[in-house]
Design brief:
With 251 residues, this protein is an alpha/beta fold. The protein contains seven helices and 15 strands. The protein has two domains: 155 residues, no CATH class; 32 residues, no CATH class.
Length: 251
């Protein structure tokens, strides 16, 4: 009997996408559910309390002045759905944080880990993981700290796939979170030679590589999957005749 695998990538912290992903087995009759990086968001939006009791936030390209209560809750929901994280604070606290990047990174990481843990709780509560295979894998944009959170759900049915072959509906699968170098110096990058060594090490652990699944986060080079905007030395998109120029960036 045919089995159905639903493969997804690049949720980038978006609450709305995660909620939709959890409905995949119901909507598509999927036997396996994979979300294979990048899991986490990249930005944190301060929601700043004002002297009059309202709150200011800048997101979606504009400034927002929000009444306490429902307006703030709705804006935070929208920001979370878009993949960012929110921080309620005062103007004085913002000034302090601007002088302490390490503290900002710590707060951001705490919110990343909290969201991943909450998402995984939603996964194990909503789905019967004895009937559906579920694999959640970080990608190159994800801090190494998320690994332990995902692993901690292994005894509740969430499969960790990065330490060697795992079973996916009776087929062995190897996975790789690392990618070739990017302009952004993300947490999981390696040279092409380094990637080859990582892959060789995984393939050696397969009994039948030709009857296995290779799940690599880096897109294959010179395909429709690896097109991205060309960037100049300042990381701004290069335009040609007024149009953003796309180049192949895969491995």
């Amino acid at each position: 009997m045919a089995q159905r695998v639903f493969f997804s990538v690049d949720v980038h912290g978006a609450e709305s996408v995660w909620r939709k992903w959890l409905r995949v087995p119901e909507l598509y009759d999927a036997d396996a559910l994979l979300l294979c990086g990048d899991l986490t968001g990249k930005s944190m939006v301060p929601v700043i309390e004002q002297p009059d009791g309202t709150f200011d936030a800048f997101y979606f390209g504009k400034n927002w002045n929000l009444a306490a209560g429902g307006e703030i809750d709705e804006m935070e929901r929208r920001i979370n759905d878009a993949g960012a994280y929110t921080l309620r604070c005062t103007a004085d606290e913002v000034a302090e944080l601007q002088e302490d990047p390490t503290r900002v990174e710590g707060i951001h990481m705490g919110k990343i880990l909290d969201r991943i843990e909450r998402w995984l709780e939603m996964l194990v509560e909503k789905l019967d993981l004895t009937r559906v295979d579920a694999i959640v894998m970080p990608g190159n944009d994800d801090d190494l700290g998320v690994d332990e959170v995902i692993k901690s759900f292994g005894d509740r049915g969430v499969k960790w796939c990065l330490d060697g072959p795992v079973d996916l509906l009776g087929i062995p699968m190897i996975s790789l979170d690392y990618v070739n170098p990017t302009p952004w110096d993300t947490p999981r990058e390696d040279s092409e030679r380094g990637l080859a060594k990582r892959i060789e090490g995984l393939v050696k652990r397969l009994d039948e590589p030709s009857r296995s699944i290779f799940n690599f986060h880096a897109p294959p080079k010179d395909t429709m999957l690896d097109l991205a905007p060309e960037l100049d030395a300042t990381r701004k998109p290069v335009t040609v005749a007024g149009q953003v120029n796309f180049v192949h960036v895969g491995s």
